From TrEMBL:
PANTHER family: GLUTAMATE CARBOXYPEPTIDASE 2 HOMOLOG (PTHR10404:SF77), N-ACETYLATED-ALPHA-LINKED ACIDIC DIPEPTIDASE (PTHR10404). Residues 1-187 form the Peptidase M28 domain. It comes from Meloidogyne enterolobii. InterPro entries: Peptidase_M28 (IPR007484), Peptidase_M28B (IPR039373), TFR-like_dimer_dom (IPR007365), TFR-like_dimer_dom_sf (IPR036757). It comes from the Eukaryota. Belongs to the peptidase M28 family. M28B subfamily. Residues 283-387 form the Transferrin receptor-like dimerisation domain. One of its GO terms (molecular function) is carboxypeptidase activity. This is Uncharacterized protein.
Length: 391
């Protein structure tokens, strides 16, 4: 699924029209239609989506996800989102760890639209992306080819697909390295002149590159016999990058409040053990898949698609203000519904524990924290079992 919104606060020449039906999305659709006329057929269905009501709270995409939830969970593989092109220097991609390899592979195939970057020897959009955003953090187990990739946050139309249904998403744009947005954002000066003469003055070459990347990502997931979803990357990121910070936080709190934090620390140990079992199972699964014939691709694809859905907890998000918060790992925090976060229910509960008025309240919050950790463990167990051959 490829999508963008078409509503705007004012004129919207950049947000959303740099990505929407009037420009890139429409051109990508036209290109695929031409390919079909020449005899190409995608192995999987491509769906082009244009949402309304994004600026007023992601209304169109959210209503669509809720109305067709069962169909999407059964059939949707990935949602590829472009909100706006924010500048003209480097590609920026936000996605989940299981798609790191796929987004890098596609970027290596798209020519660099910026002449000054090509003069530096950076011939693809990947080269510039990697140069300006080198890998950081504790990703020593990850291929050095992978640039720094953030998780998807809120504020745009991919949110319900990931947070409500557990469908993998990719959100990408072009931006300036020095700043994330642009001074005319959501103003009455966001007109076509800005797009054509300030941001993308080389015959809209950046728009073309984004369209090529969008199309290549869609083709990759539509035509690959084995879906390019890397379950072991997902598991290793959870084990090496997401959990250690929580373990350290809990240990520090346990030293000061051993009784109150005891249940949570015990449950954290269970989650830690289960996560490394998950790592082992993903690696075994990938060895089995690549050692067998292509006839098993459908068997493998069904399991790969279900891994992310294991982390959707239907009991989360029952409150009206939290109705989209069902993803155990990637749902947004109560404190910030725009920025990306990891295990927000766990981390929000830790914050509550730290700010509690007395030890009686901390005892209650410590037990609630243990429950949140148990929910994560159950999701990891589900994902582990999904990848076993007898499931």
């Amino acid at each position: 699924m490829l999508g963008n919104h078409y509503d705007a606060w004012v004129y919207g020449a950049l947000d959303p029209n740099s990505g929407t039906a009037g420009t890139i999305l429409a051109e990508v659709g036209r290109s695929f239609a031409q390919a079909v006329k020449r005899g190409w057929r995608p192995k999987r269905t491509l769906v082009f989506c244009n949402w309304d009501g994004e600026e007023h709270g992601l209304i169109g995409s959210t209503e669509f996800v809720q109305e067709f939830a069962q169909v999407l969970q059964d059939r949707a593989i990935i949602y590829l989102n472009v909100d706006t092109i924010a500048s003209n220097q480097s590609l920026i991609v936000k996605t989940i760890p299981s798609l790191f390899s796929a987004v890098v592979s596609a970027a290596k195939k798209v020519p660099n639209p910026v002449e000054s970057e090509r003069a530096k020897g950076r011939q693809t959009i990947y080269d510039t992306w990697k140069a300006y955003y080198p890998q950081k953090g504790n990703f020593t187990w990850l291929s050095p080819d992978v640039p720094d990739i953030d998780l998807p946050g809120g504020g745009t139309d991919h949110m319900s697909f990931l947070n409500f249904l557990g469908i993998p998403v990719v959100d990408f744009t072009y931006r300036n390295v020095s700043w994330g947005s642009y001074p005319l954002y959501h103003s009455r000066y966001e007109v076509p002149f800005v797009n054509e003469h300030l941001f993308d003055h080389d015959n809209l070459s950046v728009h073309k590159a984004i369209g090529q990347y969008w199309a290549e990502m869609a083709r990759l997931f539509a035509d690959s016999p084995l879906l390019p979803i890397n379950a072991s990357c997902f598991a290793l990121t959870l084990a090496n990058n997401y959990l250690p910070g929580i373990v350290k936080n809990l240990d520090n709190l346990h030293e000061k409040w051993p009784k109150e934090m005891g249940p949570a620390v015990k449950q954290m140990r269970n989650l830690w053990r289960q996560t490394w079992l998950f790592v082992g199972q993903t690696q075994k699964f990938e060895q089995d898949v690549y050692s067998e014939s292509a006839m098993n691709a459908e068997w493998a694809n069904r399991r790969l698609r279900k891994v992310d859905q294991c982390f959707v907890n239907p009991t989360m998000g029952l409150a009206e203000k939290e109705k989209e918060k069902r993803h155990v790992l990637f749902s947004l925090s109560d404190a910030d519904t725009y920025s990306a976060s990891v295990m927000s229910a766990v981390n929000d509960k830790i914050t509550e524990f730290k700010n509690a008025a007395d030890d009686k309240k901390r005892l209650e919050l410590g037990q609630q924290l243990a429950v949140e950790l148990a929910v994560v463990q159950y999701s990891v167990l589900c994902a582990t079992n999904i990848l076993k051959p007898f499931y």
